[in-house]
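During the second half of the funding period, the structural biology subgroup turned its attention to how the target accommodates small molecules. The most pressing case was magnesium ion, which had performed well in the primary screen but for which no bound structure existed. We therefore specified the complex as follows and requested a full 3D prediction, including the ligand pose.
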Amino acid sequence: MIQLTTDERIQNVTQSKPVILTGLRANNDLHIGNYFGALLPLIDLAKTRSEEFQINLFVPDLHSFTTPIDHSALQADIWNNLRIFAAAGLPLDNPDIFLYRQSYVSAHSELAWIFDCFTGFGELSRMTEFKDKSARLGVDHIGVGQFNYPPLMAADILLYNAVYVPVGDDQTQHIEFTRNTAERMNNQFGDLFVIPKSVKEQHEFFGKDQGLRIKDLVDPTKKMSKSDESGRGIIFLGDDPDDAAKKIMSATTDSFGNIHFDFEKQPGVSNLLQIQALLLNQPLDETVRHWEGKSNYGDFKREVAELVKDFLINFQERLKHVDDSQLTAKLAADEIAMNEVANATLYKVQQAVGLRPQ
Ligand code: ATP
Ligand code: MG
């Protein structure tokens, strides 16, 4: 690995290329939806377009406990995420890629507080994720942190002037909130922030993969989510490969007896077709053409189960060989560089709101 000095890292980060930024919350193991939907596209970009873009990948550890977690597992979960990034092929020696933990850059929390004071209570109350989660947990059990996390997410993005933020559909509203926050502050105080691209423009930039939604295996009408309580419909990257194969074999399908790609009418079968295409790294059309019209769901599932098993065996082997000392060195250098950038943005905002002299 090429070891860069701290000064060289800081110099890299101030070259002012457009920033692409994403984070994966550490609140459980990651699943194949996170892997194929969020991580691989970013790693592909990191491998192919880092000449044009600076890529920030961070572990939003402060977001990890907006919903209750087992705190004795948090360090392990954070490190599991970091190791997964490396095992998935994140080029750790590429100087245009920055890897960091949110809580190691205290400007995130400080800017979030300032944003809080410029955010309406009603505006946050209307966020779909907050409404859903508070309906589920009840108003006395939902934390203020859950209510308040969009301003922290806005800080995560705006501190680095990120232009593209590849996240799933569930985050669309929070990206719009981030844009509104930046516009509101810019209108009041002059040009403080770069406004991230609209969700529509982001979709265009990332092409069709951005819409990827792997569904839960037990209930294929909802997306696979790592915070789902039972875990039976989820293929976690750390699952025992045989158990994962069993989850595929018992995935909910339908009684049509006809393999056909149609997420409306046959969500279970369509989900498995999608999973197979991703595992084979094959265009979906090709996978669909191969199976279309066949009736033996058993054969189909066995093939997908076998692929999932092989994928996990390989991935877990790579995970075992991740060099923690390489990650530690990268985090140490990048967290210094990120503090430099984030503090510079924070200082501008502190000046604008009168906390620091002009
Ligand atoms: P949680 O239940 O904790 O919200 P999650 O599975 O939704 O977990 P997140 O940490 O919220 O995972 O999301 C990490 C990234 O993975 C986001 O960019 C999100 O859009 C993407 N993602 C999450 N679930 C899927 C899925 N089922 N298919 C494709 N992408 C997904
Ligand atoms: Mg989510």
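Two results from this model are relevant to the next phase. Residues 82 and 327 are 8 Å apart (CA to CA). The mean pLDDT is 92.
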